[in-house]
Model the fold of this input.
Amino acid sequence: MRVFKFGGASVNSASAIRNVAHIVNHQGNSPLVVVISAMGKTTNLLEKVIPGIPANEQERTALIRQTKDYHMGIANELFEGRQNATTQRLEQLFDALDAASRNKPTNYNYDYDQVVSFGEIISTTLISGYLNAIGIDNTWMDVRTMIRTNEHYREGIVDFETTRRMAQERMSQLKADGENSRQIIITQGFIAGTAKGTTTTLGREGSDYSASILSYCLDAENMTIWKDVPGFLNADPKYFSDTIKINRIPFNEAIELAYYGASVIHPKTVKPIQNKGICLNIKSFINPDAEGSVIGPFESIAPLTPLYIFKNNQILLSIQPKDFSFIAEENLQTIFAVLARLNIKVNLMQNSALSFSLCIDYNEILLQQLRKALESDFRLVYNSGLQLITIRYYNQDIIDRIVAGRTILLQQRARTTTQLLVEN
Ligand code: ASP
Ligand code: MG
Done:
């Protein structure tokens, strides 16, 4: 059994979905679990119709209409204007979405998951229906009956024991029912279910992680993420015109790179498959026959070349004790307790006798909360609008070229990695 994951950009139009059908149809005969995200930028749209968010009823209806028109336009193109069971089901789903967005606001994170999850339910309903219509027999599966999380809404924590049991049960049920000979399962990324039967999500861009959870729980032969890039590149093509494809990446290297901010895969993706030694392919949906990249049990990256990761919108925050004391373990303990409570991720840190400096993503609300929590004992000052550059396998030449003429506020060097915080 193999697991495929298609992200929003790979299913954002009728022609993109035809391309997905082509890829799914030309991958041999082994059973396939296909994990799909919401189409295009649907999740961003749905974030605006969570109860309590739209400014008024007019705005809410307009946004729901926009989401519906987008999907129905694609369905219309794929089904050549014919109404069928799939278009009927889509109509019902849009009615349910409309109702969910009209609910009275309760807890924001809970409301978020109940509404935003429609993106994946709708995309998979449409795509599964289309594949069946063109003769690619498949079964639509509600992933909420396979992946179990706790009730930590917007970032559900996966219960792997239960998920493993549920996912395997669902799969063997299908086999027993003889649902289809080749066994193609179409299911949702990003969303999961609780023991109570409510919906959770796994965090933005979490569909990669869904595919990895299912790969782990179903003992997949391998997993493939289909992207709009040829594979794992040594830099984001947004910043570099001459990127190099890395053909082989060791599991740990991929985890490090995702942690530093490489956006090609979600940071939680690699751990589960690494635990089982399942290889992860990253391939181009534009050029599916081309060799992509493989994350697997390798010794080192190949080819060995410098890797660059850029994180924008960073701030450098300096925290100084007010009482003339030095920065010591007790101060650090207080600071870290607050960071953990507010779920603030530290991208880089450094301390001196009088001050503790940390680089974090800029977020006004969290910054205010941090200030409030620390201001009785500490003075907080910060620089904003910074860029954090991480370079693995660096040399001085490379550093000079990258930061030429820019002001460096903080730099750290380890054996293989250097990080530079620079003014934009
Ligand atoms: N649709 C979700 C998002 O846009 C999940 C994903 O795309 O991976 O964040
Ligand atoms: Mg996505």
Remarks:
- The first strand starts at residue 2 and ends at 6.
- The domain at 307-423 is CATH 3.30.2130.10 (VC0802-like).
- The pocket of aspartic acid (ligand 1) is lined by residues 7-8, 37-38, 43, 119, 189-190, 204-207 (CB under 6 Å).
